[in-house]
Design goal:
With 168 residues, this protein is an alpha+beta fold. The protein has helices spanning 3-6, 21-45, 113-126, 130-137, 142-167, and strands at 51-58, 65-72, 78-81, 84-88, 90-91, 94-95, 104-108. The mean pLDDT is 83. Residues 141-168 are annotated as: Disordered.
Length: 168
């Protein structure tokens, strides 16, 4: 070995523990809540909220891939009723129910929106909403529903074929 490489400390590759999937879901929800916080602060100040997402696009002339910032539409999770504001924590498009049949959080005045959202972000980061995140993740998607229906139909067809063969 050369003298430069001998000065390095070489070890066996350490085992890397797999992180539980809830950590990624928790982080994603916290990011969405921070976006809602920025939107609420812009709403209170009276300025326009703009959110961007980076997208990789192929240049038609050169064929190179470039990252381009595209503006995205973000819908607010807060709403008002006669000047009184409410906030809903959402996973996807569904609001999560923090208490049975009660998904809305009573905020009151719109100036309290940022403080309420900050409190929810802290709760998410500490893992207090993990059970709600996991419960929301168990809802079947359209794709899962379609595949479940297709498998039911194929099973019922298979049963009818076998019963027809046995009666002959």
């Amino acid at each position: 070995m050369t003298t430069l490489l001998s000065s390095l400390k070489v070890i066996a590759r350490p085992e890397i523990a797999v992180k539980p999937p809830i950590i990624g879901k928790r982080t994603r929800l916290a990011d969405k809540l921070k976006q809602q916080l920025d939107m609420a602060e812009c709403f209170i100040q009276g300025s326009e909220f703009e959110a961007y997402r980076e997208k990789s696009v192929k240049d038609p002339e050169t064929g190179e891939r470039k990252k381009v910032r595209r503006r995205i539409t973000v819908r607010p999770w807060y709403y008002d009723s006669e000047g009184h504001y409410y906030f809903e924590v959402r996973i996807g498009i569904k609001p999560i129910e923090l208490v049975k049949d009660k998904p809305a959080i009573d905020v009151g005045d719109k100036s309290k929106l940022p403080d309420t959202i900050k409190l929810i972000i802290d709760a998410v980061e500490k893992g207090e909403l993990d059970e709600f995140i996991l419960k929301a993740a168990k809802f079947p998607t359209k794709k899962a529903k379609a595949s479940a229906e297709a498998s039911k139909e194929s099973k019922s067809e298979a049963k009818s074929d076998t019963s027809a063969k046995t009666t002959k």
